[in-house]
């Protein structure tokens, strides 16, 4: 019993040192996760686990490529878990304010943009958990993985949704076409922290969940010498533009119409927070304004709304900015509409900032109690 207590004490001390080294994990370099990106980030324990796994699959002096893995780049930039060069590809790279030191960051839409001409013996990927996106990420990972190297990718566990079993079969078939052969599967080994938008969704639905209720499987593939073949088609979707106002990320469906259209936000759901994060929710189709707190709205005047938000970001008078953009005087009614819209936006941002601070306090408190993560068994190293 004394020996077990000693082990727990050592683990607790190690964890305190680790947390002290990485500092405030959620504020290091990246903007808030946005629900339209399906962006869940690993817990500290899972990020540490994955770097320990990487040391078994490749030499710590080798290059590693990360596809959409903010958590791993943040940890690596603040600790000595990896010695070699690290390259992160992410669509939201430009929206971050601070970047982890020692990490090469490339802004890249992994599903659509041309990939950089780099190869590594190990590629780690965390795609959105939908079939087309997972297959697209696997193709990109295979394209940048050296022959005899490894690709490690998160996949949704069985039970995530009714059709996930057949989806996983098709994903493995696609991986084989890209020159990836199954090497290992670790069920439920990945833990994700509940992001702010999901916390708000739970609250709106009248329920709650633990800090790391979402778990994922880890699939590892080896890369053979076959060609990856043609890039898989990615289903088209609406074009969104983004603005950040006092930390809140606001996505707006692109609708740049020159004429004045009323920009007032209209409610879609009670309380304005969508009580779901699933892409299958039919209410998503009605939203063309979406915040990082999972608030959804319908707006007829996206062009004018964008001008209003831009004015608030720059500290300018929204009426003057809209008038200048339209090159004409505004009627009294139009000016009043802009004032109302400005108040709506500022109230949303103020509300979400308060909710975010509460979310962060709960996150910090629960991290202190988080258990250690199991380590992987010995694996054959690349090369």
Count up the domains.
2
Sequence of strands across the biggest β-sheet:
1-7-8-6-5-2-3-4
In the predicted model, the low-confidence regions spanning at least 5 consecutive residues are 1-12, 14-28, 372-378
Beginning-to-end CA distance, first to last residue: 43 Å
Mean pLDDT over the residues = 87
Question: Using only CA atoms, what is the Rg?
Answer: 23 Å
Description:
The chain is of the alpha/beta class and 383 residues long. It has 2 domains: 28-234, 3-Layer(aba) Sandwich (Rossmann fold), CATH 3.40.50; 240-359, no CATH class. It is 36% helix and 20% strand. The protein is built from 9 helices and 13 strands. The chain has helices spanning 2-22, 44-57, 70-78, 131-143, 164-177, 196-204, 302-314, 318-326, 332-367; strands at residues 41-42, 64-67, 86-90, 103-107, 120-125, 145-155, 180-193, 214-223, 240-245, 248-253, 266-267, 289-291, 296-298. Strands 1-7-8-6-5-2-3-4 form an 8-stranded mixed β-sheet, with helices on both faces. A 5-stranded antiparallel β-sheet has the order 9-10-12-13-11. It is elongated.
């Amino acid at each position: 019993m004394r020996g077990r207590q000693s082990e727990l004490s050592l683990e607790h001390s190690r964890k305190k040192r680790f947390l002290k080294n990485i500092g405030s994990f959620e504020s290091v370099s990246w903007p808030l996760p946005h629900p339209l990106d399906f962006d869940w980030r690993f817990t500290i324990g899972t990020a540490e686990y994955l770097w320990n796994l990487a040391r078994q699959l490749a030499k710590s002096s080798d290059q590693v490529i990360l596809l959409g893995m903010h958590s791993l780049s943040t940890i690596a930039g603040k600790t000595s878990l990896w010695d070699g060069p690290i390259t992160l590809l992410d669509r939201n790279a430009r929206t971050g304010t601070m970047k982890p030191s020692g990490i090469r960051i490339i802004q890249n839409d992994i599903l659509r943009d041309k990939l950089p001409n780099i190869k590594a013996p190990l590629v780690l990927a965390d795609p959105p958990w939908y079939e087309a996106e997972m297959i697209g990420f696997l193709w990109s990972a295979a394209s940048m993985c050296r022959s005899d190297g490894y690709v490690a990718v998160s996949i949704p566990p069985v039970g995530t949704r009714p059709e996930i079993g057949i989806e996983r079969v098709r994903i493995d078939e696609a991986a084989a076409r890209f020159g990836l052969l199954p090497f290992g599967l670790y069920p439920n080994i990945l833990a994700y922290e509940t992001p702010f938008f999901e916390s708000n969704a739970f609250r709106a639905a009248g329920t709650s969940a633990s800090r790391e209720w979402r778990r994922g499987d880890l699939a590892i593939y080896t890369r053979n010498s076959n060609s990856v073949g043609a890039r898989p088609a990615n289903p088209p979707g609406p074009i969104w533009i983004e603005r950040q106002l006092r930390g809140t990320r606001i996505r707006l469906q692109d609708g740049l119409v020159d004429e004045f259209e009323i920009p007032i936000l209209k409610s879609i759901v009670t309380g304005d927070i969508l009580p779901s994060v699933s892409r299958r929710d039919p209410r998503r189709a009605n939203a063309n304004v979406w915040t990082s707190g999972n608030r959804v709205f319908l707006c007829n005047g996206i062009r004018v709304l964008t001008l209003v938000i831009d004015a608030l970001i720059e500290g300018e008078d929204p009426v003057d900015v809209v008038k200048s953009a339209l090159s004409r005087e505004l009627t009294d009614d139009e000016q009043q509409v802009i004032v109302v819209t400005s108040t709506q936006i500022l109230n949303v941002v103020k509300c979400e900032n308060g909710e975010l601070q509460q979310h962060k306090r709960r996150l910090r408190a629960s991290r202190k109690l988080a258990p250690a993560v199991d380590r992987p068994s010995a694996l054959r190293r690349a090369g």
